[in-house]
Amino acid sequence: MVAPVEPLSAPVDPDEALRRIAFLLERERAGTYRVEAFRNAVVTVRETPTEELAARHSAGTLQDLPGIGKSTAAVVSEAMDGELPAYLKSLQDKAKPLVTGGEELLAKLKGDCHSHSNWSDGGSPIEEMVLTAVELGHEWLVLTDHSPQLRVANGLTAERLTKQLRIVDAVNASLDGQFRLLKGIEVDILDDGSLDQTPAMLDQLDLVTASVHSKLKMNQSPMTKRMVAAVSSPRVNVLGHCTGRLVTGSRGTRAQSEFDARAVFEACAEHGTAVEINSRPERCDPPDELVLLALEIGCLFAIDSDAHAPGQLEMKAYGCERAERLGVPEDRIVTTWDVERVLAWAAGG
Length: 349
What we know:
Blueprint: H1 14-27, H2 32-47, H3 50-59, H4 70-80, H5 86-94, H6 103-108, H7 126-135, E1 140-143, H8 158-175, E2 180-188, H9 199-202, E3 207-211, H10 220-231, E4 238-239, H11 261-271, E5 274-278, H12 288-297, E6 301-304, H13 316-326, H14 339-346
Parallel strand pairs: 1-2, 2-3, 3-4, 4-5, 5-6
Helix pairs in contact: 1-2, 1-4, 1-5, 10-11, 11-12
């Protein structure tokens, strides 16, 4: 069950206070610079011996530590004094549900098919994404960093992806079955509908989300062929943010790609490929009318966060509001399924 995290209360460890502030800032889509200040401070606090941290707190020299500034030093000091840091308290006090509606469906979600770490263009290590997913009540999460062609997002070569898969194995071993991190990728759909990773690598993954990131203004006919080819591949499980549109946010707006949605969704339904309801507010993709078309055709859906930071994992609330309002049945949403059912579906079972 995915649910909001419980507010922290005093006493609280300094690193946990800093972590929670970063989470809340990410949740409200604060600027990257502000978030990084607190994420970097977490690392410094954890790497500093307790005795040194206490001595610097007493001497007022916390800001001499790398990555600790005036605001983060205040948080550390207040936490070490046994208080709930004032900045954390203010963020918790003003934190509200992200959206009204969809609460019942959100509570039924078990996982997420689309998330990023700092191995590509995400802001946090894999372990931090997993820890936050656990805190939010997830049962499973698919790690879907970008593929090689998306160089601007530090896409993973086959060699880097191979290394990442070993990290995923280690994370799962440490969790002792309490949570599953699934091996995945957000693979680029190339111009001809092929996939931007070797078949051998894709065969090693638990789940593949495929998305168009280039030539979004391609003419309708070739774009349709491109997308139909991708979603018909036995290696593709989820069609990510299908229109590529942007409706708000710091990157501005972008019109949706032109393609024959009926043809694409019929191919999805035929091959068991889920249509992603991308929950990021700047995407809100696909638009309502296309969700309704995919629903009519009989498609499966994946309500995903497309999280690039831990605090964005809760953004699935936006997708749940839309899905519930549009009447998408719970059992056709793969992110409400338990991990074994997801794995069987993704493997073609």
